[in-house]
Amino acid sequence: MADNKQMVCMTCEPKGLCGGKGLLTLKEGAWANNPLAIQVLGICSALAVTNRLENSLVMGAALIFVCVGSNLLVSLLRKVTPYRFRMIAEVAIIATFVILFDQFLKAFYWDMSKQLGPYVGLIITNCIVMGRAEAFALQNPPVLSMVDGLANGLGYAVVLAIIGFFRELLGAGEILGREVPGFSSWYTPNQLMILAPGAFFALGIVIGIFNWIKGPEPEEKK
Amino acid sequence: MSETSAFVIFFAAIFTNNILLTNFLGMCSFIACSGQISTSLGLGTAVTFVMTMTTMLNYIIYHFVLVRLGLEHLTFIIFIAVIAAFVQFVEMFVERFSPKLYFALGIFLPLITVNCAILGASLFMIIRKYSFFQSVGFGLGAGIGWAVAIVLLAGLRQKMRYSNIPEPFQGVPIAMIVTGVLAMAFMGFAGMVSIQ
Predict the structure, then answer these.
(1) Which listed residue, A61, A97, A125, B64, has the most CB atoms within 10 A of its CB?
(2) In chain B, which residues have their Cβ closer than 8 Å to the Cβ of A205?
(3) pLDDT digit string (tens) for B56-106?
(4) What average pLDDT does the structure give for chain A?
């Protein structure tokens, strides 16, 4: 997905937002520094909601919304926020966007809101959002910060969708609650993939594969 | 749900409904700080303490202030503020009265504000409609359960330092997979006690 966008943008002349910095930010956030697979941030929700693809997609959307919104607001207010109070300001901004999304889900998608349970509220303590606000939005202009929020949200959402896809496929033999022709008929669902251990295995393997694709240099060696 | 005794909830929160291994809360610090047993023990203690106290505080605030005033939609922001304020307060208090404990816990306290297990415990308490004593039992149990899990993983990771792991899987990925095995082991407790 990110690669595609890059190809399209490379062909046009670098100008304005798209060329130069905006593009770099997008690529950095969604691939090279993928918050979930490379930096291993915000894994709580990644593990908890990925038992079905549908949940993963909604959660991805929630994070994109919160990340873009909070990055924009933090960036707009960055000149007037006293340095000492920036943390509490960031938390308040993030919490506001999370409440917005939560109320939206409750109003229009009650079942989904029920299924996600406390995990929507827990986006507040999701390190990705806080990390981007702190590390990027505080130093950069609003539009670029929005791009950064979008990129990181996308990177998160894509990995979440991958994990959700495989867990639902292997755990229930279905995709988005529908049977897969030619697969569901002979495959015996492995309940373990839907339960907790499956989540850990799936995420561990996905991170491992990301590291493997990225090259031999291990991210961190403790 | 409301008939379950606080004691049952306490045990269930440690074993069958371990907040880390079945609800995946507090993963960030779980992975980052599980390198050594002593470190993880300190963090586990701090989390247990803060979690018990904040569930209690949040219960009181939610039922006696927010519900009375009809402000339930502010739950998230109030809870996170209570947790942050409480952690700050504890830090100052401990620093003033017990410097020894401060050095043991000190560095972990600020980390706890962003530990999702703490906020998660408070949210679960609301969603599952616990009574006051049930909430205390749940907060304490969940904290201890979290501490047990992180100490176990730290022990495993210390041993793993000598094993030959494929390069891309070193570090975080293998920790994840080991946690999966741990979660599988904890599934053996299922059915012993159960809470919703």
Answers:
(1) A125
(2) 173, 177
(3) 999 999 999 888 888 888 888 888 888 888 888 888 887 888 777 777 666
(4) 79
Q: Do the domain assignments include residue A4?
A: no
| Predicted ipTM of the assembly | 0.79
In sequence order, what E strands does chain A have?
Answer: 174-175, 178-179
Q: List chain B residues with CB under 8 Å of A209.
A: 168
CA B30 – CA A74 distance, rounded (Å): 28
pLDDT score at A97? 92
Q: What is the pLDDT of residue B146?
A: 92
Asked if A122 lies within 8 A of B25 by C-beta distance, the reply is: yes
Q: What is the DSSP letter of B66?
A: I
Q: Which two tokens stand for residue A81?
A: 């926020």
Least confident interval from A121-130, A149-158, B64-73, B154-163:
A121-130
Which tokens go with A127?
């390190």
Q: A200–B183: do the CB atoms touch at under 8 Å?
A: yes
Q: Does B67 touch chain A (CB under 8 A)?
A: no
Range of the domain at A199: 32-214
Interface membership of B179 toward A (CB under 8 Å):
yes
Structural domains in chain A (count)? 1
- For the entire predicted model, the pTM comes to 0.79
Mutation choice for B interface testing from A34, A36, A38, A40 by most B CBs within 10 A: A40
Got the DSSP string for A113-178?
A: HHHHGGGTGGGGG-HHHHHHIIIIITTS-HHHHHHHHHHHHHHHHHHHHHHHHHHHHHHHSEETTE
